[in-house]
Amino acid sequence: MQKVFNFLKYGTKVIMFSICVIFLGFIYTFMYHGGYNWGIDFSSGVSINFIIDKTGIKDYDVKRVLSSVYNTFDVKEIISSDASKSHFSIIVKSDVTDYALKKEIHSTLSDKLNTAFGADVEILDSYFIDSNFSSILRTKSILLVCLTFVLILIYVALRFRLSYAVSSICATVHDILFVVAFLGVFRIEINSSIVVSILTIIGYSLK
């Protein structure tokens, strides 16, 4: 005789627990962090790749030197084939984006790091995104996700039933909200790769 486990009897409790976790995640994100950690793709600022002509320097060393100059910036260490040099990428967020700002950051970056580490600093490349472009990109990304939901709703409703479409959309929205809350709580940078990942999650959630 087969034993039947009625997992659905816990459905209401599990759903309520999940909603509470998501809700608390959003509260924590906006109350404690002050919002999401938007990457350079969705916020204005300057991104610079540079090399320090000295080995053994870590990203936290660079952050320590530049923390007295910039309030909102992020440094990432890049693995390079040249072991005699240290390769980094820095993103300095700013509402003002023009060539004068980029030139000023280049100069400050070189002077501060050269003084701190006693080594030459070489700027490999740099680019900036202004606030208007980043705002448009952010809006279009949100619209892309919403349009994906609408198309899925139409397809499932025509191919199967409307009730199936609504339930699948609700389940997918739950998964996306959980991921978005997770991104906010742990201050994970939201960039174009994250948007692609969210679209991938939408695809897997529907299976």
From TrEMBL:
GO terms for cellular component: plasma membrane. The keyword Transport applies. It is a multi-pass membrane protein. Pfam families: SecD_SecF_C. Residues 112-206 form the Protein export membrane protein SecD/SecF C-terminal domain. Gene3D superfamilies: Multidrug efflux transporter AcrB transmembrane domain. Keywords: Cell membrane, Membrane, Protein transport, Translocation, Transmembrane, Transmembrane helix, Transport. It is found in: Cell membrane. This is Protein translocase subunit secF. It comes from Borrelia coriaceae ATCC 43381.
